[in-house]
Specification:
- One of its GO terms (molecular function) is transcription cis-regulatory region binding.
- Keywords: DNA-binding, Transcription, Transcription regulation.
- This is Transcriptional regulator, LacI family.
- The protein has about 350 residues and is α/β, with parallel strands linked by helices.
- It has twelve helices and eleven strands.
- The strands form three sheets. A six-stranded parallel sheet has the order 2-1-3-4-5-10, sandwiched between helices.
- Strand 1, helix 5 and strand 2 form a beta-alpha-beta unit.
- The radius of gyration is 23 Å and the shape is elongated.
- The N and C termini lie far apart (about 65 Å).
- The N terminus is likely disordered.
Length: about 350
């Protein structure tokens, strides 16, 4: 296929050149990363490509074959156990399907949509996390030119979505904590950070409302170990009153629990702590962490499978694919380790 051939949205390299008011050669040099153009020309070309949603084909490889035999994966970052598990699941399944994986991290990217469009020239399709760190403009940057799978995002009509169940299990774990007689239960995590945390807070709210209780506003913190430690210090200092915390992930929960115990607060006697994900550490800490088991590695594998099907034209079921989650009762919630649940 020639470099100027039309994409699925009808845009060609000629369209970009005309919009930018430059030659096709200049457009080609800019899109290939050449420095042999002025900054003014570069900006005009990039602006035109952005407006027209143009994704160039990777020239040499695409002249020979239509597939790169590679999947792109866009994640906010790689800190914490969640992203590593997701990546391992995705890479393992992609390898089974004969595909390599090109990883891109959103963290530190000034022009993430532009970076994603560039990545799209090197892969047959992309999977990306449905997170506030990866804005809507990034998801729509490809404009149908390459298959896209959204992980843990809101269902869309134009993009495949794979996710885990969040609301029901969050209601279950919150109801369990409330059943221990806790009076000031707080949700740790920012519902605006992504659909998964938003839906977990919705479950938190539903559990309170089913008992005729008024849910507290969420404590809007990031889901990192350092944020959990800082939050625990607020509890220890008396700045934040609570006798139970429902954490949006295990990384927060484990950090909160460790710091509270270091500060002389008993878990779960003084403050019950529960999490989400069921990372391996959750079963080995003392007290063992009550949490929700989310099959993160399976989620990554499912995303790779769905993307491969789209790339190769294999039929897929309409609508989002939702993986079930499971409440795991241990002792950080107030249950005795040896008690039946």
């Amino acid at each position: 296929m020639a470099t100027g051939a039309a994409h699925s949205n009808g845009t060609t390299i000629y369209s970009v050149a005309e919009r930018a008011g430059v030659s096709i050669a200049s457009v080609s040099r800019v899109l290939q990363g050449s420095t042999a153009v002025s900054d003014k020309t570069r900006q005009r070309v990039l602006a035109a490509a952005e407006e027209l949603k143009y994704v160039p084909l990777a020239a040499a490889r695409s002249l020979a074959v239509r597939h790169h035999e590679a999947h792109g994966l866009v994640l906010p970052e790689l800190s914490g156990p969640y992203y590593s598990e997701l990546l391992m699941g995705f890479e393992s399944r992609a390898a089974d399907l004969g595909q390599s994986v090109v990883l891109m991290l959103a963290q530190g990217k000034d022009d993430l949509p532009g970076a994603v469009r560039k990545l799209a020239t090197r892969v047959d399709g992309l999977a990306m996390l449905g997170s506030s760190a990866i804005p809507e403009s990034t998801v729509t940057a490809l404009h149908g030119s390459k298959p896209v799978v959204l992980i843990a995002g809101d269902p869309r009509t134009d993009v495949d979505t794979v996710t885990s169940e969040n609301t029901h299990s969050a209601e279950e774990i919150t109801s369990h904590v409330l059943g221990h007689g806790r009076s000031t239960v707080r949700f740790l995590g920012d519902p605006d950070s992504g659909p998964d945390v938003r839906d977990r807070y919705a479950g938190f709210v539903a559990a309170h409302e089913s008992l005729g209780r008024e849910p507290l506003e969420p404590v809007r913190i990031a889901l990192r170990e350092s944020d959990g430690t800082t939050l625990a210090d607020r509890i220890l200092s008396g700045d934040l009153q609570t006798d139970a915390v429902v954490c949006a992930n295990d990384e927060l929960a484990l950090a909160v629990m460790k710091r509270l115990r270091e500060g002389g607060t008993r878990v779960p006697d003084d403050v019950a702590v529960v999490g989400w994900d069921d990372v391996m550490t959750a079963r080995y800490v003392e007290p063992a962490l009550t949490t929700v088991r989310q099959p993160v590695r399976e989620l990554g594998a499912l995303a790779a499978e769905r993307l491969h099907r789209r790339v190769t034209g294999i039929a897929v079921e309409d609508g989002p694919q939702v993986i079930p989650t499971q409440l795991v009762i241990r002792s950080s919630c107030g249950c005795r380790p040896d008690a039946p649940h």
